[in-house]
Design brief:
- There is one protein chain.
- The chain is an alpha/beta fold and 317 residues long.
- It is built from 10 helices and 12 strands.
- The protein has one domain: TIM Barrel (Alpha-Beta Barrel), CATH 3.20.20.
- Helix content is 31%, strand content 19%.
- It has a 12-stranded mixed β-sheet with strand order 7-8-9-6-5-4-3-2-1-10-11-12.
- α1 packs parallel to α2, α2 packs parallel to α3 and α3 runs parallel beside α5.
- The longest helix has 13 residues.
- The relative contact order is 0.17.
- It binds S-adenosylmethionine.
- The site of S-adenosylmethionine has 20 residues, from β3, β5 and α10.
Length: 317
């Protein structure tokens, strides 16, 4: 459906938990209590939101968290979502730690694609950043997902000290697309420097030569892609801070507690869990009205206007 600014909203990111098995410094450093199970949406409730979403023209979905795979029966949710009539794709964003265990079940359930977050190729830095010695598990998870035929992309947050070279080299070697994401001032991200992706692009030009800007889209997101013919690598940039893309925004988010979130910047959402749990209340008009009122743009440039105070892991990045 179109929102109040004429944007076509066809994509929903669904968080299934706010718990995570990594404690990334800028996302979920370890002090998030975790929602009680009774307060999480059940799979049936999530699927009811998806069914209503399809009626509104939302046909692409991505499951995220926290870490989605810590909700261990996640493949069953993927199966139910993917088999919902009208759903065209279901992807997942994961830190990859448990992916080797689940890749087969996820592929069998019909998952289309997986985006794996990978901020460093250095084991010690990985441990410093995430509090866990599990880089090798992530790399095994990527292999397993590829072997099971899932479309894999890498997501790397541009943390300022990010050394993009080993990640680009790994992406090249594995034939994967990698996207660099500007740090957003959400939760603990507020305390991190935000290095513009343009600075990375300049460094890449120095190493790889002049790129070609691709018009092609690879998925539902706002990444701008550049191909470096000299190096045979394609790199994406998601630059919410320095190249705001709100006028093309196509997405809404559902938190694990059932709040329909219309923009990352604002804490206010529409409580769909309440609607789902009160007999006789109708979901569709509530969702339609919420999407019609989606804010025009984010306000990351002016912290004073931001009303979102939760960590990214609690929202579902
Ligand atoms: N646990 C899963 C994962 O690691 O992919 C899914 C949830 S995590 C919140 C989703 C993505 O959000 C990760 O790639 C993470 O690096 C990114 N992220 C977290 N905080 C961020 C911030 N402040 N700015 C930009 N990206 C952020």
């Amino acid at each position: 459906m179109k929102d109040g600014f004429g944007r076509n909203i066809d994509y929903m990111r669904i968080s299934v938990t706010d718990r995570c098995n990594l404690h990334c410094r800028y996302c979920s450093p370890g002090n998030i209590a975790g929602t009680k199970e009774t307060e999480l949406l059940t799979f049936r409730e999530i699927v009811r939101v998806v069914e209503a979403g399809v009626q509104l023209g939302i046909t692409h979905y991505r499951v995220t968290g926290g870490e989605p795979l810590v909700r261990r029966d996640c493949p069953e949710l993927i199966r139910q979502m993917r088999h919902t009539p009208g759903v065209e794709s279901v992807g997942m964003t994961t830190n990859g730690v448990l992916l080797a265990d689940f890749a087969g079940q996820l592929a069998d359930a019909g998952l289309d694609s997986v985006n794996v977050s990978l901020d460093t190729m250095d084991e010690n830095e990985f441990e410093r950043l995430t509090g866990s010695k599990s880089l090798s598990n992530v790399l095994e998870g990527i292999q397993a997902a590829k072997e099971r035929g899932l479309a894999v992309k890498l997501n790397t947050v541009n943390r300022g000290e990010t050394d993009w070279r080993p990640i680009a080299a790994y992406a090249m070697e594995q034939g994967l697309l990698v996207r660099f994401i500007e740090m957003m001032p959400i939760g603990y991200g507020k305390t991190e420097p935000c290095r513009p992706n343009d600075a990375l692009l300049e460094e890449m030009k120095e190493s790889f030569g002049q790129p070609e800007r691709l018009r092609q889209r690879f998925g539902d997101g706002p990444a701008e892609y550049y191909r470096f013919p000299g190096a045979g690598v394609t790199v994406g940039f998601i630059s919410a801070m320095h190249h705001k893309f709100c006028e093309d925004c196509n997405r809404v988010r559902l938190t694990s507690q059932g709040s329909l979130k219309l923009c990352l910047c604002y804490g206010e959402g529409v409580d769909l869990r309440e609607v789902l749990r009160i007999p006789g209340r109708e979901l569709l008009p509530v969702m339609r009205e919420a999407i019609r009122n989606k804010p025009r743009e984010h306000c990351f440039g002016n912290f004073a206007q931001m009303t979102e105070t939760r960590a990214m892991a609690e929202i579902g990045g």
